[in-house]
Amino acid sequence: MFCLGTNIISWCSRKQSSIALSSVEAKYIAANEAVCQLVWLRRIIFDLQQNILDPTTILCDNISVIAMTKNPVFHARSKHIELRHHFIRDMVNKKEIQLEFINTYDQPADILTKVVPAEKFQQFKEFFKIAN
Amino acid sequence: MEEAHQVLLMNQTQNLLPEELRSLTDIYNSCHVAFFSGESQNFKEAVRKEEWRKAMNEEMISIEKNQIWKLVDLPKEKKAVGLKWVFKIKYNEYGSIQKHKGRIVAKGYSQQPGVDFTETFALVARMETIRIVLVLSAQLQLQVFQLVVKSAFLDDELQEEVYVQQPPGYELKGKEDKVYRLHKALYGLKQAPRAWNHKIDLYLHQNGFSRSQSEPSLYIKKKGEDFLMVCLYVDDLIYTGTSKDMVAEFKTAMMKEFEMPDLGLMRYFLGIQAKQFPGKIFISQEKYVADLLTKFHMSECKLVASLMAANEKLLQDDGATKIDSKYFRSLVGSLIYLTNSRPNILYFVSIISRFMENPDKLHLEAAMRILQYLQGTKNHGILYKQQDENRLIGYSDGD
After folding, report:
1. How much is the mean pLDDT over chain A?
2. Partners of B70 in the beta sheet?
3. Whether the predicted pLDDT of B23 surpasses 60
């Protein structure tokens, strides 16, 4: 899910094609997909004459995932992850992106991955100004 | 209770709409009429109606004027592609009839690769791109305009030798066995969209536009500090720019080069309605939802407040009666398009889309529940607003 400020521009929700053995792995793969989309969005925004030199922040609610993108930690949990899912490390090194932590309760992307309580659904709609 | 809710929604919409617009009820009525009044008509029915005869004559005049074809004898080794009429009613963003359109199309499905055509391609913009353009416009307080090319696929030179039969209703007396040799593309021909794309690309490049490397449908023209952006969707396009002069100049040039009516501000593009205010753009798919509900006979359905129960779990094979998968697929497909202005329903749509292969009654119930939710939130959409913080931010999560 990507926003310019709080103007939401791109979103995606899909079943992952490979089976993840842990939630860290699932989130890592999800973050990686986000990075691919992000690289593309950054290019378009650049083409539209907007200044976009700073690394873009991706907010993720899992500290382990953030650690994994920086350093090859958690060998036991991540040694089998396919190489193409490590694209994210490359992009972090190139300073195209950075990952930051967001509390699960504030994570708006939750709405695309699970059935959320009505309250949170409403919160999401207000945050992204989805209304009549 | 439910009725009261409905009335409330109606009042809210009416307050938001400018005075000359019609109420929701009117819109539904006209949608309803539209569904039965025309589009499925075949040639035999259409000739009996004045408005369709007029539309057909207009099409023939346009073809003659553009020198699309020439009457010749069919060479022995060649086959002529059949033609047929397609009738369409064009609507404006309020759902009322804008114009009747009769169009000659080639039965492209009978063309053979390698013989009648070599390559096919049509360029469409990604929805993300369109949304980025809209957000930027809101941010920079720009107005977004729209143009549509009237006969995009008719204007383009054909590389191959293609023959077509004479169109139904316009056969020339005494020359019935002759055929037309096409000089330019017709709708329905396999190579038509590609020929058009080639032409517009050439034109834009000649006029100082550069094409975005990562999004081929996006063209940008720079002039000092100012710039103009153009987003192509086959023969529809939206454009905006930081300089009023550049925008006006572009519009005049395009209208001169191609036959295109001026649609003014972007209001209805690819089934998405847009309302523009200074520094704000609101997009929704209200008409699309109304049409969708009618199509699946849910226009009178009850409202629900939530999309799915928290503990509900859909299974591939849960023993319920199987249903027609074609019907289900069509419903899911329509809902997927709707997520273009409704990210909040995306998760639920993605869940039901997993059962497209082998749907049963329970899956259909879940899909119908989404329709019921939409019934109560038809006029919802996304508001893009100018704001101080304008950094690109991503959120990612997995479950």
Report:
1. 85
2. B181
3. no
Q: Do B132 and A48 touch (CB under 8 A)?
A: yes
* CB burial of residue B133 (10 Å; 0-12, 13-18, 19+): buried
- What's the burial of B3, exposed, middle or buried (CB within 10 Å: 0-12/13-18/19+)? exposed
Answer whether 0.80 is exceeded by the pTM.
no
Asked if B392's CB is within 8 angstroms of A44's CB, the reply is no
Same domain, A41 and A76: yes
Whether residue A113 is found in the same domain as residue A63: no
Question: B50: which residues sit within 8 A by CB, 6+ positions away?
Answer: none
* B2 band by pLDDT with thresholds 50, 70 and 90: very low
Question: How many domains are there within chain A?
Answer: 2
Say whether both A95 and A30 belong to one domain.
Answer: yes
What integer pLDDT is reported at residue B9 of this predicted model?
Answer: 38
With a cut of 90, say whether residue A18 has pLDDT above it.
Answer: no
- Chain B segment 281-300 residues within 8 A of A by beta carbon are 284
Domain that holds residue A57: 21-101
Chain B positions in Cβ-Cβ contact with residue A43 (cut-off 8 Å): 212-215
Arithmetic mean of pLDDT, B231-245: 89
Residue A12 belongs to some domain of the structure: no
Q: Give the gap in angstroms from C-alpha A31 to the nearest C-alpha of chain B.
A: 5
Q: Judge whether A109 lies within some domain.
A: yes
Nearest neighbour of A7 by CB, restricted to B305, B346, B384 = B384
Residues 339-398 of B with CB under 8 A from A: 339, 342-344, 346-347, 350, 354, 377, 379-385, 387-398
Cα B63 to Cα B105: distance, rounded to the nearest angstrom: 12
What is the ipTM, given to two decimal places? 0.85
**Assigned domain for A10 exists:** no
Per-window interface: B 111-130 vs A, CB < 8 A: 128-129
DSSP A61: S
Is B395 in contact with A108 (Cβ distance < 8 A)?
yes
Are residue A70 and residue A109 in the same domain, yes or no? no
Residues of B in contact with A54 (CB under 8 A): 391
DSSP output for B312-345: ----S--SPPB--HHHHHHHHHHHHHHTTT-GGG
pLDDT tens per residue, range A77-126: 788 888 888 899 998 998 888 999 998 888 888 888 888 888 888 888 88
Domain boundaries, chain B: 38-284, 286-383
A88-97, B24-33, B225-234: segment of lowest average pLDDT? B24-33
Give yes or no: residues A109 and A97 share one domain: no
Strands B157-164 and B262-265: unpaired
pLDDT in the model for residue B219: 92
pLDDT for res B230? 92
Residues A122 and A83 in one domain: no
User: Identity (one letter) of the amino acid at B123?
Assistant: L
Residue B309 forms contact with A (CB below 8 Å): yes
Q: Residue B140: closest CA among chain A residues belongs to which residue?
A: A50
Note whether residue A116 is domain-resident. yes
Cβ separation A49–B310 shorter than 8 A: no
- Which of A53, A112, A128 would best serve as a mutation to test chain B binding (most B beta carbons within 10 A)? A112
